[in-house]
# Entry
Amino acid sequence: MKKTIEPALSAAFATADIPRGIELLRNWLITAKAGEPEALVRETRAALRAKVVLLMRDLLSCYPVTILGAPVLLLASPDSDSCRQQMPHLSLPFPDSDTAQPCADLRFLGWLPPDTLLPVALPFRAEHHPVAVPWFKPTSAIALFRSHAGVFDCDSIALPNSWWAELFRPTAGNIRLASRVVLPYPDALEAARVLEASANAKPPAAKGLFLSDAAWHWAHSEGVLFHETCRHMYSDDI
# Structure
């Protein structure tokens, strides 16, 4: 894999031939198998790695009509003992006509589990990526969205609390949810892994390939806070 694309990418970047680099990596990603993008970045020499990561993030996310992810922490508790016996976990809801457009800048596509490997097949099929949350266990997931070409700053996007409430209204059980940022989906996957580890009082996941230092520290702190909050609220169950 490395032998077939890295020399060509290196040559394109060395001559500042960005269109050629885009073409090379885009064509490679079209046929890449699950986990191969991460492997390519790890195998790329250090001097080239940051440029490959930057370009790969944009291509995977389909910039400028970007696929974005909101890393979410959830704690689900059943309404009753009978509910817990009948349902071993809570299945996260798929988009429908009432929840497909949380705000003007985003369209809700569905969910990804945090252990998803790149690349995600597009167009996205929500039914191919069901996510289930066990009772009383802090669990992360990525809410996946499609933005439009006019969105330049993820920090400016706010998902309304009312949309989250409407999304989970049909589900059985009670949901405690924390979600504060929207990121390109490769970054969101890595942030979700840090969130889940920290929320379960485990050593946080390493920074990964795409996530910035600032976003990693945010995810770690958010997970620790979620753990402490849930521990006090559900001390008999967690």
